[in-house]
Amino acid sequence: MNAQLPATVRSDAPDDGAPTPVRKIIHVDMDAFFASVEQRDDPSLKGKPVAVGGGHRGVVAAASYEARVFGVRSAMPSVTARRRCPDLIFVKPRFDAYKAVSQQIRAIFADYTDHIEPLSLDEAYLDVSEDRHQLGSARAIAEEIRRRIAGETGLTASAGVSYCKFVAKLASDQNKPNGLCVIRPEQAQRYIASLPVGRFHGIGPKTAARLEALGIHTGADLQSLSRDELTGRFGSSGEWYWRICRGIDERPVRSSRQAKSVSAERTFDTDYSSAEDLHRELGRVAGLAWQRIDRARAAGRTVTLKVKFSDFRLISRAHSFVDPVDDPATFTAAGHHLLDALLPVPLGVRLLGLGLSNLTEVNDEAPRQLGLAI
């Protein structure tokens, strides 16, 4: 723990020898957002375990806190969720409703800062270094934002306040639901040291298990390792681990954050194994995916097919183009080509997905080049 926390100088500070004030970052995260919207709009669901999504063959898209008590989590197969909570109530997702509420919340954010980086419909980073309304502190701004969200939407939000994005996101999860946590620069390293590595944003279950197998269970364990030790074991990721466990995160809040991919997927009521059935369903998925791509005004160079078999084994296959794919025919043909390479399938297929990544924004004024057949 010898590294000094950069508590006064920002990475974008002018190189004139004078330190600039530390950033003031808020991470706002709505509490069980989809499920909470459903409970708000249908009072009969209040206080009951609710799962959005699911159905006979689907997965849980979101779970209320009453359902989480039973171990129900997002991305869990609905069969497993029902087994854990026999009284679980499944409701169909209403993404138009969630998007409308998200826009309400975004409008509240915009009253306090222009620097808003949405991560999804239900969470965002805000840089409130400029105190637009002279509220006196980032804590006060976060408290007012949470009060307004509750008053204008009837929903609760949790917030984390700190000097960088990594610590602010950790803090927003600290006192959920409907909580606020402030971590000052001088508190950060001690706070991070106390947390399990599985809490760190960017470290998923598999990476956490790998770290724990090496005896690295907490932030303190990470802090005890040198930069060379971490990069030697984890390559470029080791550099990131070395920095975040010391509270060093100089990433700015980017209001023009671009999506990394656009996709759609569908879980079937019946497993499919014939080429005819699979190509038919893939065509439907491709159509839905392209609607989203078109709305995002995006083009991309990589088409990825996702296949989940009846035993829940998941695979993906991708094809990259030299030029961006900007027409639905090429996108769909690429998906069918990737599927053909997998046929015949060893087991029935329960889910197909198709997506586009390596995205670039479409320029309508530039001449479009027709995609080439594979």
From TrEMBL:
Classification via Pfam families: IMS, IMS_C, IMS_HHH
> Which of UniProt's keywords are assigned here?
Cytoplasm, DNA damage, DNA repair, DNA replication, DNA-binding, DNA-directed DNA polymerase, Magnesium, Metal-binding, Mutator protein, Nucleotidyltransferase, Transferase
Required cofactor names: Mg(2+)
What PROSITE patterns has UniProt attached to this entry?
Answer: UMUC
Q: Which domain of life is it from?
A: Bacteria
InterPro entries recorded for this chain? DNA/RNA_pol_sf, DNA_pol_Y-fam_lit_finger_sf, DNA_pol_Y-fam_little_finger, DNA_polymerase-Y, DNApol_IV, PolY_HhH_motif, Rev_trsase/Diguanyl_cyclase, UmuC
UniProt KW Repeat keyword:
no
Which EC class heads this enzyme's classification?
transferase
Q: Which reaction does it catalyse?
A: DNA(n) + a 2'-deoxyribonucleoside 5'-triphosphate = DNA(n+1) + diphosphate
> In the record's cofactor note, how is the cofactor described as bound?
Binds 2 magnesium ions per subunit.
Region of interest (Disordered), residue spans: 1-20
Please state where this protein is localized. Cytoplasm
Q: Is Protease tagged as a keyword?
A: no
Q: Where is this site: Substrate discrimination?
A: F34
EC numbers on record: 2.7.7.7
* Positions annotated to bind Mg(2+): D29, D122
Q: Which Gene3D superfamilies match?
A: 3.30.70.270, 3.40.1170.60, 5' to 3' exonuclease, C-terminal subdomain, DNA polymerase, Y-family, little finger domain
Q: Which residues form the active site?
A: E123
Q: Which residues form the UmuC domain?
A: 25-204
The job of this chain, per UniProt, is described as:
Poorly processive, error-prone DNA polymerase involved in untargeted mutagenesis. Copies undamaged DNA at stalled replication forks, which arise in vivo from mismatched or misaligned primer ends. These misaligned primers can be extended by PolIV. Exhibits no 3'-5' exonuclease (proofreading) activity. May be involved in translesional synthesis, in conjunction with the beta clamp from PolIII.
Annotated family:
Belongs to the DNA polymerase type-Y family.
Describe its assembly: Monomer.
This chain belongs to which protein, by name? DNA polymerase IV
Q: Which organism is it from?
A: Sphingomonas humi
Q: Which gene encodes it?
A: dinB
